[in-house]
Amino acid sequence: MADTKQLWERYQAQLFVDERLGFSIDVSRMDLDDAFFAQHAALTKKAHEAMAALERGAIANPDEQRMVGHYWLRAPTLAPNAELRAQIEDTLGAIHRFAADVHSGRLSAEDGGRFQNLLVVGIGGSALGPQLVADALGGANDRMRVFFFDNTDPDGIDRVLEHIDGAGGLARTLTIVISKSGGTKETRNGMVEAQAAYAARGLSPSAHFVAVTGEGSELDRVASSQQWIARFPMWDWVGGRTSELCAVGLLPAALQGINIEGMLKGARAMDELTRNADPKKNPAMLLALSWLKATEGKGKKDLVVLPYKDRLVLFSRYLQQLIMESLGKQHDLDGKVVHQGIAVYGNKGSTDQHAYVQQLRDGVQNFFATFIEVQKERAGSSIEVEPGVTSGDYLFGFWYGTRRALYEGGRHSVTLTVDDVTPHRLGGLIALWERAVGLYASFVNVNAYHQPGVEAGKKAAAAVITLQGKVLGALHATKEGVSAEQLAGQIGEAGEVEAVFKILEHLAANGRARKDKGASPCLARYSR
To answer: Which of 153, 323, 337, 493 has the fewest CB atoms in 10 Å of its CB?
Structure first.
């Protein structure tokens, strides 16, 4: 462990600051020495060159033979051809015009009044980014109040509808359905639930609905045939987890009243910083190298994200998808089995002091931390909770004290500091982590831009729904109760008894099957 003088010298040497972005990154508590940088010089050069090629339009997702162009969203002039540049610029202009029409009342609700609520229907990247931005940048003066259907949980949907009914109702609510493929079942279900809710209140869903989707997708066809208010594009070169700065995130944010140009400008400024070939002057490279040091390039430690700001409480959830879906891969680009990934979790400071910092300090040493410090306490001046001390001073003290305590216990950490949470700063943070993920993926030779595990999960879920159809058909044809084992045999699925049992239990719990108890839970009998 270095002494205080050595730590101060290392801090000065390894602190990267950019005044224009109001941003700094401190990797001094990661123990990155000159030997580490030298050892990985060839790797960092390769990652830098791969990122540059990606931005020029190289096929960065070989599985799907796709370009990866989320960096062009904030700098359309970088797009590899005039057609893509025009698509980005035209869509941004359409978002601004649509939001202005809604805010002015030129585009009004069925009763002629202004839309005052926004319901966003999406899942994963189509919800996590918009939720982060809405919570981080929203406030009492928002132009519209934002709600989300981000799961296929009926009770969760009902709870959101209750909140909307208490905030002016669906009559004054605009709904955006977001799905690139248009075939995501959770989003489809949310759309159907929302349409039913509008219809139950005597409202026309088509007069309230907007689609963000791929051209020619299932959702695009539905929106066109039902004459929804508007449609905005998603492109195959933008992945869901990197889609916050296209229509997926910009449209809800603009309707909420957030300065989306500020978000784009901040992301663009961070992109410029993270193109620097010198790893010590490239904050994304410093972040990725810190991950490499902590995990040994093999995912040996988890990443704990600790933002010391309530507005960033959803940041760890956003990063879970960005990092874990991008890096969690069974095979590398050469086809070798590698089981890569970095597990991410986090909450917020100083709540963490009373939750799991005890284990971080004294428990299993299986993690490294990233602190996010926000310097500005609040919009106005802070009161003193005791002489010379504000509540924000305590927040600062808890952050700095925790960082020190962890390092004294041999726990490593990175600290990111921003002066405030603004559209510009948040756009920069989003861009920073996107770039770091791409660089680290190059370090460990995985495709960061596909998600075969997610697709496997979708196929497994579809198989369960197909099996449920068989179960329901057999129940309809049965005049007396049958056990799960008997029913599985009847439908030719003897090897799926457990799945059949769980389906029957689900149906019975929701009034769609009758259950008569047996000698043991698994011997219950079911009927219609």
So the answer is: 337
